[in-house]
Amino acid sequence: MIGIDIVDIRRIAKMVERYGERFLEKVFTPAEVRYAGGKRRKEESLAGRFAAKEAFMKASGRRLTFTDIEVLSESGRPFIMYRGVRFDDVSISHERSYAVSVVILKEPPGVSVNNSIVGNAERRTQNEKTGTGGGI
């Protein structure tokens, strides 16, 4: 499944200005806020992560809690952690006014990501604890 989202960076800047910490805590994890705080254009970074969270929800076909979806990066490449499961097929881009993200959720044989992302994430976490295979 594929999800895509575009965000007006000014919209995120206005939300941060108007609601401050309350908005940040409701939508972003502490690691995401720290990452953005280290950037010259903080709102641009936050908007990119917001777009990635929305794209992930669209790809999953479910409305999820924003803070359960954590957008991180490694060597400059974004990835998503959701309930202990890492999703690498994430792209974020921004320019002066907009941030956009695309997320691709691959379906292993016999697994429907669209209908069972929450169950698969929980199963993957359990399988990792027990050393068995499966999951997303």
Total number of distinct structural domains = 1
Spell out the helices and strands N to C.
EHHHHEEEEEH
The number of distinct helices, counting runs of at least 4 residues, comes to: 5
CATH T-level topology:
Ribosomal Protein L22, Chain A
Main beta sheet strand tally, sense and closure:
3 strands, antiparallel
The N- and C-terminal alpha carbons lie at a distance of 12 Å
Spatial order of strands in the largest sheet: 1-6-5
Alpha carbon gyration radius = 15 Å
- Give the total of beta strands: 6
Low-confidence stretches: 129-136
Say which CATH homologous superfamily is assigned.
Answer: 4'-phosphopantetheinyl transferase domain
Provide the β-strand percentage band.
Answer: 25-35%
Shape by Cα distribution: globular
Tell me about this structure.
The chain has a single domain, classed as 4'-phosphopantetheinyl transferase domain (Ribosomal Protein L22, Chain A), CATH 3.90.470. With 136 residues, the chain is an alpha+beta fold. The protein has helices at 9-19, 21-27, 30-37, 42-60, 113-130; strands at 2-8, 69-74, 77-82, 85-87, 90-94, 98-104. A 3-stranded antiparallel sheet has the order 1-6-5. Strands 2-3-4 form a 3-stranded antiparallel sheet.
